[in-house]
């Protein structure tokens, strides 16, 4: 019976064949232990010389790292194994013999591993991170589909910026100027006016010359947008969504979290509702803690970490100053210096994973913001139309996938959370 490593539990004490690669091996004079992987998981194959004969045993002993094989054997239950099973091998067929595989079990520097990212992905740790990433994506679709959202795909090539910044990748679009999208949000607002509740999932690009462990040049965003919804209602959706995703990973990625040596007790506490602190109170708290920061300044990584350490689950920082937030955010009803927005800060020093707000729904106020931010009315005329023809209260947010993966996995750097990271000085492989 041909099967995969994750399915071997269905064939205990039965003979199976698995297509696999050799991740590692060790052997004594009479037994060889093969660490096998097939993309779905990892399992140990045990080759006993007395049971298989000289020829197969020598084949097993001489196998090189990352050689591809078909391995046949009996599935045995083994509570000591991470997966709960091992394979008593009685047959081997070599598909391709790998030679001088560059990533050996010894320690390698980060730059070396990044240069060999196409091979580094095969390692147990990187495999686990990619499986968690996949579960977050799967749970995202499940959550939004189950809650009445429609998936909409905004364009990647745009004629203007969503946030009015200069950190854009410029390209020529035939005779016009175009940019790689830094957010699909404005288009999602248009989609929400047509479909009610929508979400997108796609790549975004920021030409920021940043080298911090939290930044990528190309990253993926989940961006829901909701018509007839105010800021407070949006916060409930956000905390419900994040809770759902974290609990889905805890349920469906036990082996991966174990391989990552993740302290899951901290993730188990991630249940809605989440605590909230206003920007005003956050500034006061930071000053009391000895941070040099004044009202009107944005928070950096040390500030977010200090605030997060007060809580055992993600925390919303609400109502930031208008001058440090995007042009489309709705003013607070009783204050003209702050807007109806919130950033969700992950615990354990992982920083902002969500930014969200209620959007301006008044045509004249949006025109005023265009003028204040020097935005071209021609370029943004279509966005103004959303306020001219049946405007409604609406809110939305964006979750950065890679930061979320990093937090849930407990990685030190965001570069491990995407298959092929694009960093300030890295476009290879």
UniProtKB/TrEMBL annotation:
Enzyme Commission number(s): 6.1.1.22
Record-level GO BP terms: asparaginyl-tRNA aminoacylation
Domain of life: Bacteria
Gene Ontology MF term list: asparagine-tRNA ligase activity; ATP binding; catalytic activity, acting on a protein; nucleic acid binding; transferase activity
One of the Pfam families matching this protein, by short name: tRNA_anti-codon
Keywords from the named record: Aminoacyl-tRNA synthetase, ATP-binding, Cytoplasm, Ligase, Nucleotide-binding, Protein biosynthesis
Enzyme type, top EC level: ligase
Subcellular location: Cytoplasm
InterPro entries tied to this protein: Aa-tRNA-synt_II (IPR004364), aa-tRNA-synth_II (IPR006195), aa-tRNA-synth_II/BPL/LPL (IPR045864), Asn-tRNA-ligase (IPR004522), Asp/Asn-tRNA-synth_IIb (IPR002312), NA-bd_OB-fold (IPR012340), NA-bd_OB_tRNA (IPR004365)
Aminoacyl-transfer RNA synthetases class-II family profile domain ranges (all copies): 130-429
Reactions this protein catalyses: tRNA(Asn) + L-asparagine + ATP = L-asparaginyl-tRNA(Asn) + AMP + diphosphate + H(+)
Keyword ATP-binding: yes
Entry GO CC: cytoplasm
Subunit: Homodimer.
Family membership noted in the UniProt record: Belongs to the class-II aminoacyl-tRNA synthetase family.
Stated name of the protein: Asparagine--tRNA ligase
Lineage: Bacteria, Bacillati, Bacillota, Bacilli, Bacillales
């Amino acid at each position: 019976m041909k099967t995969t490593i994750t399915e071997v539990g269905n064939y205990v004490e039965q003979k199976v064949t698995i297509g696999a690669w050799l991740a590692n091996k060790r052997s004594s004079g009479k037994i060889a232990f093969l660490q096998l992987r097939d993309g779905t998981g990892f399992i140990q194959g045990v080759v006993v010389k007395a049971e298989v004969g000289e020829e197969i045993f020598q084949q097993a002993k001489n196998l090189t790292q990352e050689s591809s094989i078909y391995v046949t054997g009996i599935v045995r239950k083994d509570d000591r194994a991470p997966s709960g099973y091992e394979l008593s091998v009685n047959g081997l067929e070599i598909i391709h013999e790998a030679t001088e595989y560059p990533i050996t079990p010894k320690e390698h520097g980060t730059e070396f591993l990044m240069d060999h990212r196409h091979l580094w992905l095969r390692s147990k740790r990187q495999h686990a991170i990619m499986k968690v990433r996949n579960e977050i994506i799967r749970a995202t679709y499940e959550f939004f589909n189950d809650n009445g959202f429609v998936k909409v795909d905004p364009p990647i090539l745009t004629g203007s910026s969503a946030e009015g910044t200069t950190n854009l990748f410029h390209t020529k679009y035939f005779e016009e100027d175009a940019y790689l999208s830094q957010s699909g949000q404005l288009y999602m607002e248009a989609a929400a006016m047509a479909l009610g509740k929508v979400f997108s999932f796609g790549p975004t690009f920021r030409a920021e010359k940043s080298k911090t462990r939290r930044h990528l040049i190309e990253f993926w965003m989940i961006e829901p947008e909701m018509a007839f919804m105010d800021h407070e209602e949006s916060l409930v959706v956000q905390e419900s969504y994040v809770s759902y995703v974290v609990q889905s990973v805890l349920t469906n990625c036990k082996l991966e979290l174990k391989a990552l040596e993740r302290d899951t007790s901290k993730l188990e506490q991630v249940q809605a509702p989440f605590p909230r602190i206003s920007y005003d109170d956050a500034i006061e708290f930071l000053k009391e803690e000895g941070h040099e920061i004044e009202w009107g300044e944005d928070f950096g990584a040390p500030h977010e970490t200090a605030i997060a350490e007060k809580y055992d689950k993600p925390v919303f920082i609400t109502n930031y100053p208008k001058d440090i937030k995007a042009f489309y955010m709705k003013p607070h009803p009783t204050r003209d210096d702050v807007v109806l927005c919130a950033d969700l800060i992950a615990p354990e020093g992982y920083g902002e994973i969500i930014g969200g707000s209620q959007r301006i729904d008044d045509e004249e106020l949006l025109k005023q913001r265009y003028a204040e931010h020097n935005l071209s009315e021609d370029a943004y005329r279509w966005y103004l139309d959303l306020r001219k023809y049946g405007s409604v209260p609406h809110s939305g947010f964006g979750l950065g996938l890679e930061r979320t993966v990093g937090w849930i996995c407990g990685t030190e750097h965001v570069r491990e959370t995407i298959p092929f990271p694009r960093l300030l000085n890295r476009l290879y492989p």
